Amino acid sequence: MRGTRTILLLLALGLVSAASLPADLRAALAEHDLGKRSKLALDNAGSALKAAREAYQKDDNPALAAAALEIEESVSLAWDSLESTGKNPRKSPRWFKQAEIETRNLLKKLDSLQHDFGFEDRPVLDKAKARLQKVHDDLLTGLMEGKSK
């Protein structure tokens, strides 16, 4: 429930409009199971990463920026969903470990994509990469140390 309230609050504040969300991310938001929502959001981040690669190859800078933003929003939704479960990652690791593995894989792919970019184009992905790294680190910390009290 807490994750739903977070998303509704973001929508109410106008930070994220339903119309601006990609279709797959809206499908993730429609999922009531927070663990499954997290997985759907990370799957969407993977699709957005592929879209970013294609946009770069086509030299489509607006599509590249949109894909980078979609990666960031997807990863944030995944993290918010897992955090909203209220579960201790160490005691109930199922969705947390799955998300940690997926974020690690996404980080590798994002880093590889960024290295394929020309030096002047690399900053486009910096914000998404930083968010992805933060979520991965938080997931790993939660799994290794448990939730802070």
Which structural traits does this protein have?
mainly alpha, 149 residues, globular
Mean residue pLDDT: 86
Poorly predicted segments: 8-19
What is the approximate shape?
Answer: globular
Q: What is the C-alpha radius of gyration, as a whole number of Å?
A: 15 Å
Largest sheet: none
Number of helices: 6
In total, the number of domains comes to 1
Order of helices and strands: HHHHHH
Give the proportion of residues in helices: over 70%
Strand fraction equals: under 5%
Number of strands: 0
Distance between the termini: 20 Å
Class derived from helix and strand content: mainly alpha
Explain the overall architecture.
- Helix 3 runs antiparallel to helix 4 (61-84).
- The two termini are 20 Å apart.
- The chain has one domain (2-145).
- The protein is 74% helix and 0% strand.
- It has helices at 2-13, 23-30, 34-57, 61-84, 94-116, 126-145.
- Mean pLDDT is 86; it is low at 8-19.
- It contains 6 helices and no strands.
- By secondary structure, it is mostly helical.
- The chain is globular and about 45 Å long.
Question: In brief, what are we looking at here?
Answer:
This protein has 149 residues and is mainly alpha-helical. The protein has helices spanning 2-13, 23-30, 34-57, 61-84, 94-116, 126-145.
